[in-house]
Amino acid sequence: MAVLSCSFTLSPRVLNPYSSFECRPDPDFSTAPIGDKPRLASSRRVTASLSSLIFCFPPNFVRQLSIKARRNSSNIGVARIVAASWSNGPAPDSPFLAAAASAQAAAAAVNATATNDGAAVEGCIDNGSVQIGGSDNSTTTFLSSDGSITVHAGERLGRGIVTDAITTPVVNTATYFFKNTQELIDFKEKRRQSFKYGRYGNPTTVVAEEKISALEGAESTLIMASGMCASIVMLMTLVPAGGHMVSTTDCYRKTRMFIENFLPKMGISVTVIDPADVDGLEAALNKNKVSLFFTESPTNPFLRCVDIERVSKLCHSKGALVCIDGTFATPLNQKALALGADLVLHSATKFIGGHNDVLAGCISGPEKLITEIRTLHHILGGTLNPNAAYLIIRGMKTLHLRVQQQNSTALRMAQVLEAHPRVRRVYYPGLPSHPEHEIAKQQMTGFGGVVSFEVDGDLMTTIKFVDALKIPYIATSFGGCESMVDQPAIMSYWDLSQAERRKYGIEDNLVRFSFGVEDFEDLKADVLQALETI
């Protein structure tokens, strides 16, 4: 490593050059011989490599910077100007280095003890650019609830950035370096770990992926720039050219557009069935060599539910994979992998992020499948920015609190709407009137925060209702803290004629309402007053 040097002037009072920095703990050298204490002459211009002078830093700073994370000082909460050359062994006769080495040995002893107790962080991996600590997904062994997992998974027992900060730092870098060519060769021959380039990974992003994996009970998770990015990369990976897949009638329109308009260009044919048509699925499996069954559950916007366990067994018997888009359910309300699906996908923009301030998508499942998808992802791009990954991590810490409130509000509002004379029909899996209510009760612990319904009126009547609402924003998307409402005929299908919209079941009076975390009584009063205007 090249030696860093600097030139600076020290005043006579400078025994602790960073007197304004509150060190913890400050080493006590009162018992050291006077000759061993660091003394610097006043008003003297000094140019030094400082290999033998180590300033006071937090207790684990040696671990953070010693041979690994030299370039990540802004993420460690220490002064950014660190002019010091760190070596693997202390310089002779230096009390500062002796104290640092002693602290490092003590930390190592603590880590070793924790390892014996089964609760330690794995050994750090030197990747030459940022210190990568082995993460420990055994968090779930002592966290019994999803709520605790959303807060601590991927972080509490170790993460890819070794720091004593509670929050995961954001590592803003486009690429990673190697100290010498041998390190690069070791990386290429899989003897050492590195991300190499920002498109291939980032320590902050890995924390978000591990948190989602723990929540889904998955071996691996890949997070990308958006939910559509995750869907497209997954489809292009798992359905070969000339292959066949099965999907459902009710789904996000952009997903349908890709399946109908772009997959055929690769020679891929598609069978589209009703979400409840298991016989149609079986017929498609018998007639074609199906690679994949891909569906939302619940679906958008009618919240139809697929019997995940049943369709998974059926598809697996014919050699087909199953991927469930669980965005409307969230990982808290539904565990698609535990029900038998091979993969579960989310638009993390929605409930997982939860604050309407970040775009992201993720896909979770067995390591083998995720690795295949990751390989194509590295080629196509669609990389999540580490700042966005931080927002996902931050958002997930309140996921269980938000979803609990949204589940409760949506169910109660669905009941209110169903009983209202100005509402023709309500679509919500928590209602007994929903066609898949029994399926939803079996595979979901909550029914989500979105309710779709048809008001008693035409396009203009529905517009009047929507415009009379005072709390929700008229906006696309869902799952955030703020309530949002939209009229799908206008928001998503306005480029189609009324007859074309009806082919997809989209009537002019359909409303999709995403309930946020506002007080239930406030939302109820707002909806009721808006209904009174029509």
Walk me through this protein's architecture.
The structure is a single chain. The chain is an alpha/beta fold. The protein folds into 2 domains: 146-397, Type I PLP-dependent aspartate aminotransferase-like (Major domain) (Aspartate Aminotransferase, domain 2, 3-Layer(aba) Sandwich); 399-532, Aspartate Aminotransferase, domain 1, CATH 3.90.1150. It contains 18 helices and 16 strands. The strands form 4 sheets. Strands 5-11-10-9-8-6-7 form a 7-stranded mixed β-sheet, sandwiched between helices. The longest helix has 22 residues, at 95-116. It is globular, with a radius of gyration of 28 Å. It starts with 5 loop residues before the first strand and ends with a helix. Mean pLDDT is 80; it is low at 1-139.
Number of domains: 2
CATH topology of the largest domain: Aspartate Aminotransferase, domain 2
Tally of alpha and pi helices: 18
Question: Which shape, going by the Cα principal axes?
Answer: globular
Q: How would you classify the helix and strand content by structural class?
A: alpha/beta
Strand content: 5-15%
Question: pLDDT average, as an integer?
Answer: 80
Organism: Gossypium darwinii (Darwin's cotton)
Family: Belongs to the trans-sulfuration enzymes family.
Catalytic activity: O-succinyl-L-homoserine + L-cysteine = L,L-cystathionine + succinate + H(+); O-phospho-L-homoserine + L-cysteine = L,L-cystathionine + phosphate
EC number: 2.5.1.160
Q: Which keywords apply here?
A:
534 residues; Aspartate Aminotransferase, domain 2; Aspartate Aminotransferase, domain 1; five-stranded mixed β-sheet
